[in-house]
Amino acid sequence: MGIKVSKFGGSSLADAAQFQKVKEILFADGDRRIVVPSAPGKRSKTDVKVTDLLYECNRLAGAGQDIEPAFSKIRERYQGIAAQLGLHVDLDAQLEEIAKNIKLGAGADYAASRGEYLNGILLADYLGWDFVDAKTGIFFDEEGRLDSEKTQERLGAILKQHAYAVVPGFYGCDTHGNVKTFSRGGSDITGAIVARAANADLYENWTDVSGCLMADPRIVRNPEPIRYVTYRELRELSYMGASVLHEDAIFPVRIAGIPTNIRNTNQPDEPGTIIGYEAEDYESEHMITGIAGHKDFAIIAVEKAMMNAELGFGRRVLQALEEEGVSFEHMPSGIDTMSVVVSEDSVEGKKERLIARIHELCSPDSVEIHSGLALIATVGRGMVRSKGTSAKLFNALMKAGINVRLIDQGSSELNIIVGVDNLDFENAVRAIYRAFVVKEPRW
Ligand code: ASP
User: Fold this and answer.
1) Are the beta carbons of 169 and 190 closer than 8 angstroms?
2) Which of 30, 51, 206, 355 is the most buried (most CB within 10 A)?
3) 51 lines ligand 1 (CB under 6 A)
């Protein structure tokens, strides 16, 4: 028998009806033996997540105000779910204890973590599974980073003692024995850590979408779903703005060689997206896996004759950026030119100083900063083996009348990045999508 660790997001556990769907999913496959819940999320667009209510309670307590207006909503949510599911677990004492601790100044991490903690208790009762408090198995170090080794060892040992377990997401224990949370959306990270510690065969991440799409649906109408994507491809796509999983949820499963499957709680028959370890594991249906990008970058273009022969030139340009606290995104360079791509935000109000400092440090022939650049990454493990990918891409952009301002093909051959005017961004994404994915344009 294998082990699947199933993490359910907040919208998947927002009310009693969602709890029922979760139970059905879990009981449909005997390998699903460990579940990681988030706190109840929004039931509608105007609803408030329990985590946000808990942060609000903490804020009110800090300001010496009554927490009851926010806390009563939290109480109602949990008691409502418990009553509708006919659970016998008594949450009253726990709720009052939590309210008391928040008032006494237990802090933001403690307050926020109680959303997952209480949901875990409810879910464990509903399923008849064991509740394992994440504070006993997930540890942070002095610097507030995950202590992977200790966690792996302790959590692994704990999980061995439970045939079926519920481990609440989002938090663990700091070096002083206090609760500490991950950053927002961190239950994804808990799921990945638990999958690694349990030596799982699969990490299932259940949410409200059927996996990743090949392009942003706000730009391309009905984009195709991505059936398989490698961890490296996903990293490139998420860096460019495609977001499905918390970034830090990749590492624990990636090093353990465990695939992740993004699934939809509301459409459990759909296969979702599998994020796999090796490119060779999966044949890709299209030459590319996905397209992602975003607007508002700037290029710092530096020119100097014989730049290539000058030792330390690049370092001095980057020194000027470092002094101003600007980190760079890409650096496609020619023989006598160097282009540094930065986010528009990061150079706001610093452009003149940067230009002056580069002049001082590097004595270039010219330095210019061009704004209004959008970057688009076309990502695909299939690109390594197929000829003509770039030709197809640039041809598509040319036919759409789009001027390419920058090209950067990483040495991984997994990714071609093009820079276009902000104004051309959406058209460029559609043109690339049309060239690689759709035979007959759908729009
Ligand atoms: N409940 C937490 C949040 O809203 C963690 C999570 O849902 O993953 O950020």
Assistant:
1) yes
2) 206
3) yes
Contact criterion met (CB below 8 Å) for 16 and 80:
yes
- 401 vs 429: CA distance, rounded Å: 13
Residues 360-404: tens digit of each pLDDT: 999 999 999 999 999 999 999 878 777 888 899 999 999 999 999
Q: Report which DSSP code applies to 247.
A: G
Provide the residue count of the chain: 443
Instruction: State the sign of the Cα–Cα–Cα–Cα dihedral 407, 408, 411, 416.
Output: negative
CA 323 – ligand 1 centroid, Å: 35
Is 11 a pocket residue for ligand 1 (Cβ < 6 Å)?
no
Does ligand 1 have an atom closer than 6 angstroms to the CB of 187?
A: yes
| Region of 41 on the Ramachandran plot (φ > 0 left; ψ -120 to 50 alpha; else beta) | beta
Q: What is the reported pTM?
A: 0.87
Cα 180 off chain centre by: 20
Using the mean position of ligand 1's atoms as its centre, give its distance from the Cα of residue 84 in Å: 23
**Per-residue model confidence (pLDDT) at position 325:** 95
Which of these, 130, 100, 134, lies nearest to 116 by C-alpha position? 134
